[in-house]
Amino acid sequence: MTVAAPASSGADKAAIAVAQRVQRLYGKAKSYKAKFKQTTKLKVHDKKKVSKGTVAFARRGKLSFRYSKPRGNRVVSDGKVVKVYDRAARQMYEGKLKKTYYPASLAFLFGKGKLTRDFKLRLIKPNKLKRGYLLEAVPLEATPAYRKIVLYVDGKTAKVRRVMILDAQGNVNRFDFSDPVLNERIPDREFKFYPPAGTNIVKK
Q1: Sequence-distant (≥ 6) Cβ neighbours of residue 158 within 8 angstroms
Q2: Any domain includes 2
């Protein structure tokens, strides 16, 4: 059972206020679409990978990442099963959505979960950002998928422009969103994916 983060200081109250604005905006949304740039940094190998594409979310945990770089790669979920397709390797990983970092760390984008209920919140350098806020969110219930997330929230609109997901090994997965659109109808076929014949399917 999770409880709301305690508002024990002015900084906590400010962080909760920002999180509530984000929840009000996305909590009413039936869908979310945007362009994204994904930057992955692996600490052990000291490697950096940049990917791009479009993303769509809908209620009940539905998500779809279409990659233009690397072209043809996909991440798709119908709300229960997530499929991660690597076109170059001709391989697809398939597993339960709840075991990945997508549900909790990005749940607010498709009206699922609550920042103020599920995370301990604080603002990072609250007095040094003129156009927005850096909101740090540490899950109240530990998860092996990630250690914490950091959101860059636009000060005027409360739209989340960036999400950084940090895991226990020091790896960082960062999503920068642009041209977001809320409540546009998204057909169900967007959240279904069938790999080409000959694809090696690995089930987890």
Answers
A1: 18, 21, 22, 24, 25
A2: no
